[in-house]
Design a protein that fits this description.
By secondary structure, the chain is an all-beta fold. It has one domain: Sandwich (Jelly Rolls). It is built from no helices and 9 strands. Strands 1, 3, 6, 7 and 9 form a 5-stranded antiparallel sheet that branches. It has a 4-stranded antiparallel sheet with strand order 2-8-4-5, with no helix packed on it. It is globular, with a radius of gyration of 14 Å.
Length: 118
């Protein structure tokens, strides 16, 4: 199994406030470990942001996963950056999706670093 460290960036997200934008979807044949997730407010006023994990996978003898909030409506002051992971890691399975939303369209910049296991 190969481990590859990767980074994904969005200069601004989401396209429309209230409609979470897909940042990453785990591809077939991969498992992903999210190592870092940073949101930066690029607006001239404070915004709130949410990050969700959309998952429908089922682990052995467990209930099927559903959509869960990693953060929900967290305020980010003008010019500030929010490090969401703070040393934690999230494992993602095939088909799992990370989505980002903001109270104002195109006003949060996103960086996600992860390790892809293939």
């Amino acid at each position: 199994m190969a481990n590859t460290f990767k980074v994904l960036t969005r200069d601004v997200a989401p396209n429309a406030s209230g409609t979470p934008e897909t940042i990453y979807t785990v591809q077939s044949g991969s498992t992903v470990v999210v190592l870092g997730l940073t949101l930066a407010n690029v607006h001239t006023a404070s915004v709130t942001a949410s990050v969700t994990l959309v998952s429908t996978t089922t682990q052995t003898s467990q209930t099927q996963n559903t959509t869960a909030h990693i953060i929900k409506d967290v305020p980010i002051p003008v010019g500030a950056t929010l490090e969401i992971m703070a040393g934690n890691k999230i494992n993602l399975n095939v088909g799992d999706i990370i989505k980002v939303d903001c109270s104002v369209a195109d006003k949060v910049s996103v960086i996600m670093s992860y390790m892809e296991i293939t």
